[in-house]
Each structure stands twice: as structure tokens, then as C-alpha cells.
Amino acid sequence: MRTSLNASDPREDPLRLDRQLCFQFYAASNLIGRLYAPVLARLNLTYPQYLVMLVLWEEDGQSVGAIGKRLHLDTGTLTPLLKRMETLGHLVRQRDREDERRVRVSLTASGKALREEALHVPEIMTRGQDLEELDALRRTLASVVEALKGGKAQA
Amino acid sequence: MRTSLNASDPREDPLRLDRQLCFQFYAASNLIGRLYAPVLARLNLTYPQYLVMLVLWEEDGQSVGAIGKRLHLDTGTLTPLLKRMETLGHLVRQRDREDERRVRVSLTASGKALREEALHVPEIMTRGQDLEELDALRRTLASVVEALKGGKAQA
DNA sequence: GACAATTAAATTGCACGCAATATAAATGCA
DNA sequence: TGCATTTATATTGCGTGCAATTTAATTGTC
Q: What strands, in cross-sheet order, belong to the sheet with A62-63?
């Protein structure tokens, strides 16, 4: 008695939405962004802007390119995003004197101060979750992302 | 000799980018979209449009709301997206006679025919990967998405 | 049957993402 | 030095995502 399914079984259909790993990433990413939005709105940040702040809080004064490399974003996304953040007063953009091609992005005093408020964010977003489990998942996904960077499909 | 880390250790910083599970989802989702783009371009589809096709290939003639529920997208995203797909000739949008509030989305002949070409896509994207492993990850992420739908942070 | 409440889409406005192209500065090399 | 190549950022154009609002049809209630 075989337990495998024949070709006409819809569960075998390779195009079923539920079978696509890519869709789980897509759905999760969108849903996560929606959950962060109201929390970050209190800091006057969108989710991608929050990521930029995380990068700058680690090391201030990085170039646009360095930030983009970290977040896997190009200048087409970052330049206007950073300009909006500059208008909001979180940071300043200035040409590097050493190499005029570069633009260094530096936090303002209020941008630095915002870090204190942001310290609550991870706690709020993971409240009630099993932290060990989340960390295991994070490590798994980190290796997936690493493979994706190399151009491997993986989804 | 203690192995735990003190508060000043940067690895303990809750705001480190590398520690954010949310970022792994964000990065993976963006990178996946970028990998699919050239493959789907041959079918004249963007990645979100491909997802709509997956939904319609499963069941044709669904309402905008039903498609949105499946993909976790609202009409603000779907209406213009579906209009573009209609222009491209993949589908048609028509008011439901039974309930004039609804718009039914139906595949055209070419939209249905496109399914044959799309059959290669999952294979192309997962080539060289351990399918068992990908499926295990898919199931894990499906449960994460399920929790996120309920509003639980989880990231 | 009137009419408030609900439901389904569309619209508006704004912020991403990203490919392709443009611009300008630095580098390399004959 | 002169000039092609490379590197860093900006710009353009298009397609999402999503909150908030609007419009129109249906349902529920008296």
C-alpha cells in the first residue's frame, strides 16, 4: 500500500501558494512591517528608517554605500530615504572631504538620543515569545540570507 | 570562570542589527524578490503579480477581497496591481452581477496558458537545494506567519 | 419600506525597492 | 600628464504596500 500521492492530487501541484517558501518570507516580512509601524511611529520612524538607525547607532558617520551594503539596499532606495530622515532631524548628510564622491551620514543629537526610546522596541515586539526559539530561527534565517546574497535561489 | 557577557559587551546590545529576527525576514524577502524578477520577467510578471496568478490558477474568478485575504494585501495594493495585469492581458475584472459591490477577477486564455511556463519557476528557484530542508523551513515559517496574522509580534 | 450599519472596492497620499541611467570624483596606466 | 576606467552617489521611472478616506451596494432592524 503506497502512501505517495499521484500527479492529479492538488497537493502535488508545484504552483500551490501554500507550497511556496518564498511566499512565507513575503507574507512574514509584510506582516512584521505592519506590526512595527505603530510602535516606530512613536519614534517618528518607518521600519526601513529604523533599520538605518540601528546601523548608525552601531557606528556613526558611515557612508551611504556602507549602510546600503549592511541592509542590502541601493542608493535608489537610500538617497531619498536618508533625505527624509535628514528633514526629520534624525541625521545629517555631508560630502566626505577626503573623497568627494562619498556622503557620510551622521546622527544628530536627537538622533542619538532616540536610541534610548528605541531600546524598548525589541522587548515590545518579542513580548510573550520564546526567546530561545526566536534566536534559533534567527540563526537559521541568517544562513538563508547568506546563501541568498550569493545568488542561490533557496526559495 | 563565568561565560556570560557583561552589559558593556556589544553582543549584548538588544539593538544590534544582527540580532533582529525581523531584519532577517526583511532582507530575505527583498533578496528573494530580486532573484525571482529576472525569471518572472520572461512571463511578463512581477513577483506580487506572480502570487496573484498562483491564487487564480488555484481557483479562477475570485473576488478582489478573496485574493487579498490569501496574500495579506488590501485593495490599496491590489486594485492598481490588478488593473496593470488586466492591461497586460493576463486577466479581466468585472463586477459581480449577484453583488454589485464585488469585482470578480478571471484569467484570460493567455493568463491560463501562462501556467505552463510558470511550472518551471519553482524548479528553477529551488535548483540544487535540499528540498526536504526547504520544506521544513516552509512549515516553520507558515506557523510564524499564522502567529503574525493573529497580531503576535514574534520578531 | 425607511434608514442606519456594514461590507466591498476604489481612491488618495506617502514611503519604499529597484533597474537603468546620469553625474562627478578618484584611480590606473600608457 | 592625458585619458579611459572605476567607484560613489544621485536621479528617473515604475511597481508595489499601506493607512485613511470615499463611494456604492447590501444587510439588519424597526
A: A62-63, A103-107, A91-95
